[in-house]
Amino acid sequence: MFKENHDMSRVRIILLTLIVLFGMAGNSLLARAALGGHLIGPLPFTTIRLTSGAVILIVLMAVTKTRPKLHHLLMPFMLFFYALAFAYGYEQLGAATGTLFLFFAIQATMLAWEIRGGHRLSKLQWTGSGITLIGLWVLVGGISHVPKLLGIGLMLGAGAAWAGYSILGKSSVDDLATTTANFTYSGLAAIILLAIYAVIEHWHHEVIHISIEGVYYSMLIGAITSALIYVLWYILIKELTGVTSAVIQMLVPVIVVISAVPLLGEQITIRLILAGATMLSGILLVTLSKSIRKSVSDTCS
């Protein structure tokens, strides 16, 4: 009986891991398909994404008979800034390139935060950081167009905002209640901004670009690959060791890079492959070194 329960637990974790992995990767692929394909503009995309996420989470809270709870005042702001910069960044960058910059910024910001808190880097972490910067230099070296450089800046900003959002949420007691509150407040902010933008566009006799297909993409991303996947990720990381969760996160940009060719028709160049492999190797070295140290520390204490 014990073995059967253990096997069921392992199957549950594997299935949950696969759902989260492909959900996170799908977030980038669907966003690029909608924004790169000009099915919808970045601001309406962000508004629909955040409000759709808020709606599905409020429904979940109603089922569980709990209430949204704001954990930190900055969290909705961080989520809003991340979503907006993410959308405008993916209007300029391909899914593969955008994901690499996003992931780099997330990891770099979290590492900088730990250093600020007194964390001292090991030799492996310094080595990994250097390797990552080399990969970043190789990747940026192949981009010369101004719009794409702006897209890089936006994606780096999105990654930093997401890292800040994650750092603030680490001490949250109820992840579902906190996530619901964050999506609700950031969704309201997006609606207000979109309304102001609509008035300005109307004043200039312009029309906000929104297609039905773009709305569907935005709703799918907001409700499924954003809100629900974020909640499932919080559940999953409580079941995994630090090392395993670190490796899982590394697989997301790999899936995006591989999938961007058949699904979006993106060209994967030798430079992108070399830069991506170098960056991911460096980040993996830093993350695994940090996770292994933490695991050893927890075991000894």
TrEMBL record:
SUPFAM superfamilies (alphabetical): Multidrug resistance efflux transporter EmrE
Annotated localization: Membrane
Membrane-spanning segments: 43-63, 70-88, 94-112, 124-143, 149-168, 180-200, 215-236, 243-264, 270-288
Keywords per UniProt: Membrane, Transmembrane, Transmembrane helix
Top-level taxonomic group: Bacteria
Protein topology in the membrane: Multi-pass membrane protein
Pfam hit, one: EamA
Main location (coarse class): membrane
A GO CC annotation given for this chain: membrane
Stretch forming the signal peptide: none
The keyword Transmembrane helix belongs to this UniProt entry's keyword annotation: yes
Keyword Membrane: yes
Database matches in InterPro entries: AA-Vitamin_Transporters, EamA_dom, EmrE-like
Domain EamA: 150-287
Name recorded for this polypeptide: DMT family transporter
Native source species: Acidithiobacillus ferridurans
